Amino acid sequence: MYNLTRLRILDLSRNHLSGPIPFDFPSLLNLEQLNISFNMFGGPIPSTISNLTRLTILDIFTNYLSGDIPSDMFERLSKLQVLDLVSAWIPTSIPMSLFKCKELQIMNLVDCGFEGILPKEIGNLTMLRSLDLTYNEIEAFANNIIICKMQQSPTEKCPSTKYKSPKSHIDNIITSYHQTRKTPLCYSAL
């Protein structure tokens, strides 16, 4: 992937691609949307994704990833609005650097193997409108009830788990928590 400095959207979804995620991302520095969902990529998520500082959408939905998410992966992704890691199965705790993504509106982390307590730092995500942590081993709240300023009640369901575009995706994400193995993870501040 060289000489692609003007590329803004890279959608390689549903291509039956396999092996490790092959990108070093040296020339994709203007990339705003990366979708590699519904492939058969395996291995760890490359730490070089953190070099994509203009990224607003990161969709790694349904791949065969393993290993930990690099702890600093989200440090430089300050423009990230949508994160979709459904079924990534990377058993670890949610990286604290994720809570620095102040623009994050949708966080879809269903069935990722996350475990532990949901940190109170989730309250830093003031733009968050949709959060789905079902089918993880996340325990109840850390000390205090965490208030997320989401538009929908945590028990509502939306029609689809996929977003359509950066402007219309909010209505198409599941915000249900009733399937979570532990207690509900967020209350909506209405």
UniProtKB/TrEMBL annotation:
- Output the SUPFAM superfamilies linked to this UniProt entry: L domain-like
Q: Which GO cellular component does the record give, naming just one?
A: membrane
Localized where? Cell envelope; Membrane
Q: Which residues form the signal peptide?
A: none
> What is this entry's stated membrane topology?
Single-pass type I membrane protein
| Keyword Isomerase appears in the UniProt entry | no
Main location per the UniProt record = other
* Cited Pfam families: LRR_1, LRR_6
Keywords from the named record: Glycoprotein, Leucine-rich repeat, Membrane, Repeat, Signal, Transmembrane, Transmembrane helix
Q: Which family does it belong to?
A: Belongs to the RLP family.
Record protein name field: Leucine-rich repeat-containing N-terminal plant-type domain-containing protein
Species source reads Gossypium raimondii
